[in-house]
Design a protein that fits this description.
alpha/beta, Methyltransferase, Methionine Synthase (B12-binding Domains), Chain A, domain 1, Rossmann fold, five-stranded parallel beta sheet, 9 helices, 5 strands, about 55% helix, binds CO-5-methoxybenzimidazolylcobamide
């Protein structure tokens, strides 16, 4: 669809205002939220990822595109509503210490919120101590950790070990995700679940909560 291609191109160009205009236009044309996210915003970010990998572009350009993508997601967030209005559970989520990537974590949070969960988003660069504090303060059912760097993945284990030390591990289920994370890694570090993307994260959380 032409408009979705235009959204992707505007993310690539880092044109925040144009992304917002086009997302609004796509909504007026009754294009589904899923298509706008997957075939528009994420398609654009995918191209940026490839170019970044090939050293054709650098951090500043990636950041500008990331902001443009986020601006599009900001419009969609209120529309991914929890139609039943029932809170099914509470989730503390964050990107682990040393890691500043938050687009995927925000998308996961948005979908979980839409699926009926209360989200306490601790943001990026979240230390194990901050996860501990949040668990003590909010008493969540689930703790979700996101990591996008191979160098920050070990922080997931450090956080789980810290929860054990603090006697909190049995109080929460821990789920992990992010591009370099695998189901094997999740098992190795003692997490309770892994999801490869936002829709899988919703399925995973639903299954954990239904077993509680
Ligand atoms: Co960075 N970066 N980055 N970056 N960046 C990657 C991750 C990289 C793969 C690019 C590359 O070289 N090919 C590479 C990592 C290599 C590695 O470790 N193996 C990399 C690097 C090297 C770096 C820097 C070190 C670059 C530098 O400074 N030289 C630096 C590190 C900064 C830091 O964190 N300390 C850096 C910086 C940045 C920016 C700040 C410029 C920007 C982030 C902006 C932001 O997030 N606000 C950025 C971006 C945008 C990327 C790429 C291009 C895109 C990531 C993204 O947003 N994808 C990325 C390349 C790539 O992934 N192809 C790259 C879209 C997003 C929707 O997908 O995050 O995978 P994703 O989330 C998915 C799933 O993974 C899953 O669901 C999401 C939705 O479907 N998921 C979960 C995520 N979290 C989950 C949690 C769950 C469950 C599922 O449960 C709790």
């Amino acid at each position: 669809m032409e408009i979705l291609r235009e959204i992707a191109n505007s993310v690539i160009a880092g044109n925040k205002k144009r992304v917002q205009e086009l997302v609004n236009k796509a909504l007026e044309e009754n294009i589904s939220l899923e298509e706008i996210i997957n075939d528009g915003l994420l398609a654009g970010m995918g191209v940026i990822g490839e170019r970044f990998k090939r050293n054709e572009i650098f951090v500043p350009e990636v950041l500008v595109s990331a902001r443009a993508m986020q601006a599009g997601m900001d419009i969609l967030r209120p529309l991914i509503v929890n139609s039943k209005g029932i809170i099914k559970g509470k989730i503390v989520i964050g990107t682990v210490k040393g890691d500043l990537h938050d687009i995927g974590k925000n998308l996961v949070s948005m979908m979980l919120e839409g699926a009926g969960y209360e989200i306490i988003d601790l943001g990026i660069d979240v230390s194990p101590e901050k996860f501990v504090e949040a668990i003590k303060e909010h008493n969540p059912d689930i703790v979700g950790m996101s990591a996008l760097l191979t160098t920050t993945m070990p922080q997931m284990k450090v956080t789980i070990d810290t929860l054990k030390k603090e006697g909190l591990r049995d109080r929460v289920k821990v789920i992990v995700g992010g591009a370099p994370v695998t189901p094997e890694f999740a098992r190795e570090i003692g997490a309770d679940g892994y999801a490869k993307d936002a829709s899988e994260a919703v399925e995973l959380v639903n299954s954990i909560i239904s077993k509680k």
